[in-house]
Structure formats: C-alpha cells, structure tokens
C-alpha cells in the first residue's frame, strides 16, 4: 500500500504525519515540489520481464510524459532477489544524493521506498505498483529497494548518460527507515 511518513530531519523517532490516502500524499508532496500520480496497472508483471513488454503496456502514458517534459530516453529497470549486484546497487541508491535532472519512476510492479530530504523534513514515500513519482533535479533523496528487491520500474531521462548522481556525503539516510521496516 502506498504510504507517506514525514519526520523532522534531526529526529527519526518523531513521526509528524503518516497516511495512505492518495490525495493527502499528493498534497504533501506537491507542497515540496514533488509530483505524484497513480496509473492503472495493466496486468501483473514479474521482475525479469522484457523491457519492450513493459513499455508497450504503458506506451500512451510513456509518450505523454515524454512530450510534456521533454524526456529524451526511457528505460526499464527490473530487479529481483537473484540479481548478483543487488547488495552493491542497494548501497549506492541508499546514500543521499541529487541529480542534475528530474528522477522520474513508474512502478509497473513491486515496491520501493523513496525518501526525500527537504525543508528540514524527511518524507518517506512507500511506492507500489501503479505509482509514479517525479523528484525534481537537485532534490536530496535516497532510494531503498530492500535486501531482496522485487520491482519493475520505468525510468525517464533528459540526460543521455542515464542515472548520474552527486552524493552529498551526509549519513542522514542511515538514521531513517528502510523498505523492510517501513
């Protein structure tokens, strides 16, 4: 279930707000410049599915976002618990970082925990199949796919190099929840 939890950035024990109400999630994220929407899920997909199959199921929505925001490329990331680099990938995504472009992800299957650090707050967004989140360029955040990932996500890029991160060097991500305890 999609949820949001909001904490002060200096106190991970002080839960300020939580909800699974999509309108309230959108409202709180919109206040900090994060776009969130839900799309109907077009049949169950499993990690390992061919990227072309994922993109064809969501072709109209993929095209709409590309035209609206000028994204130059789209790909599919699909990870499951058998991925040989799952631990290294998890550690990389778990460090607070920013990107020079928007980070746009649609969960076609599975789940992940996006955590955004803005305005002296930490916003934990548990995303599931059907959720689209757009984190604007230069927004500090991190992502947890869990120790045994299981998700299929469509990603949009304006940078032809794909996912490029600038790490903050902060250890704040170590203070807050992981996917497996959210």
The ordered H/E elements are EEHEHHEHEEEEEEE
**Proportion of beta-strand residues:** 35-45%
- Radius of gyration from the alpha-carbon trace, in angstroms: 15 Å
Can you tell me the overall shape? globular
Give the count of helical stretches: 4
Instruction: Describe the sheet with the most strands.
Output: 9 strands, antiparallel
Distance between the termini: 11 Å
Q: Which CATH class of the domain at 37-112 and 126-168 is shown?
A: Mainly Beta
Describe this structure in words.
The protein is of the alpha+beta class. It has a domain at about 35-110 and about 125-170: Jelly Rolls, CATH 2.60.120. The protein has 4 helices and 11 strands. The chain has helices spanning about 20-30, 50-55, 60-70, 85-95; strands at about 5-10, 15-20, 35-40, 75-80, 95-100, 105-120, 120-130, 130-135, 140-145, 150-155, 165. Strands 1, 2, 3, 4, 6, 7, 8, 9 and 10 form a 9-stranded antiparallel β-sheet that branches. Strands 5-11 form a two-stranded antiparallel sheet. β6 (about 105-120) and β7 (about 120-130) form a beta hairpin. The radius of gyration is 15 Å and the shape is globular. The N and C termini lie close together (about 10 Å).
Task: From the structure above, extract its key features.
182 residues, alpha+beta, Jelly Rolls, 9-stranded antiparallel β-sheet, two-stranded antiparallel ribbon, 4 helices, 20% helix
